[in-house]
Specification:
By secondary structure, this protein is an all-alpha fold. The protein has one domain. The chain has ten helices and no strands. α3 runs antiparallel to α4, α3 packs across α9 and α4 packs parallel to α10. It is globular, with a radius of gyration of 20 Å.
Length: 274
């Protein structure tokens, strides 16, 4: 089976998520907006699901559990995309409310999250479509934690790297710098995987393409008048409209990917009539 040490990689992802989001989410869970919970719970379950998949895939006795967890991902994925839509909703609400950080980077955050949604939809659809090709399927599933890994990693880095610390509004550019450097490290990690396994790492390259787009979107979208108008428009939409749209996109992806990966039906030959 491919990527036999992936379980340890996933444990590292979990550790960074806990460290990065501890001060702003886990330690103050009762004080954060509901959108954070919608995203946080779905994304955490997704990471745990991929971790379980990476563990069970390399133990023959656990293959039935591997398949069961994989089937559960079909039902979890709509909630994952709905959670991302909830974050877009929260970001847009902060923007129109005049929150200082989002006044500076709001359109970039919104666009970056939209790119992340497109990445998850593309990667998961292809993971389902090619679920019978173990290297392709494993690559796509294991690449999903990288799509938004910049978020917890950049926060964790700000605890130890002085250039990324934010002590007030004057330091807000440090936020974007830490995000961009985190994305660059993700790309370096993908390059390392490519160096280790060659062409079998193509699924990670698909994710790398989205990460590059995400970097440019977050870095340059803030100066676009069109995207600022879009952020304002989204901020005035009802919460339910945004979240349910995300849920519908996720549900459609699960259904379409499962159908695309089915074995082709072989017609049964009937004897010719005499």
């Amino acid at each position: 089976m491919p990527y036999p040490r992936a379980f340890y990689y996933m444990l590292g992802v979990i550790a960074v998520i806990v460290i990065g989001f501890w001060p702003s989410y886990f330690a103050v869970g009762t004080q954060v907006p509901w959108q954070f919970h919608a995203h946080g719970m779905a994304a955490s379950l997704w990471v745990l699901m991929v971790t379980a998949q990476s563990w069970t895939a390399h133990r023959k006795t656990q293959l039935p559990l591997h398949r069961a967890v994989g089937m559960a991902s079909l039902f979890l994925f709509p909630f994952l995309i709905a959670g991302l839509a909830a974050i877009i909703d929260r970001q847009a609400k902060n923007y129109i409310a005049g929150e200082p950080l989002h006044q500076l980077y709001g359109p970039g955050f919104m666009t970056g999250t939209m790119v992340a949604m497109a990445a998850y939809v593309t990667v998961y659809f292809r993971a389902l479509k090619y679920r019978r090709k173990v290297w392709v399927h494993a690559g796509y599933m294991l690449s999903t934690p990288l799509i938004l890994f910049e978020s917890p990693f950049s926060r964790a880095a700000s605890f130890v790297v002085p250039a990324f610390k934010v002590n007030g509004p004057a330091d807000f550019p440090h936020v974007m710098a830490s995000i961009q450097w985190s994305c660059a490290l993700e790309l370096a990690f993908i390059a390392l995987i490519w160096w280790r396994v060659g062409g079998r790492a193509r699924p990670f390259l698909v994710t790398a393409g989205f990460i590059v787009v995400e970097m440019f979107a977050m870095g340059f979208a803030g100066g676009s008048a069109v995207l600022r108008h879009l952020d304002t428009f989204v901020g005035h939409l009802p919460d339910a409209t945004i979240v349910l749209t995300g849920f519908a996109i996720g549900a459609a992806t699960s259904w379409a990917g499962w159908q695309a990966g089915k074995r082709p039906t072989v017609p049964v030959a009937t004897p010719a009539m005499a």
